[in-house]
Design a protein that fits this description.
The chain is an all-alpha fold. It is built from five helices and no strands. It is globular.
């Protein structure tokens, strides 16, 4: 999945709130990519959504985000 701009990324991330733990697993590779985005707003929005889910894959993404060079 390719996003054209930050707005599309945030819209996708916001749509996660309608998913459950199983359905969000289909998007793990996209979520991993977004976790490494250069835009801090994308990463902040992603982190706020990911904490709502309970899966090992999501936990690994969140854990990786703890070591982000941009600590904002």
């Amino acid at each position: 999945m390719r996003f054209k701009n930050v707005r599309e990324k945030i819209t996708f991330i916001d749509s996660l709130e309608n998913m459950d733990n199983e359905s969000v697993k289909k998007y793990i590779s996209i979520l991993s990519m977004l976790a490494n985005d250069k835009n801090i707003d994308v990463k902040l929005t992603l982190a706020r959504q990911l904490v709502l889910f309970d899966s090992d894959e999501i936990e690994e993404i969140l854990y990786g985000m703890l070591f982000d060079q941009n600590r904002l």
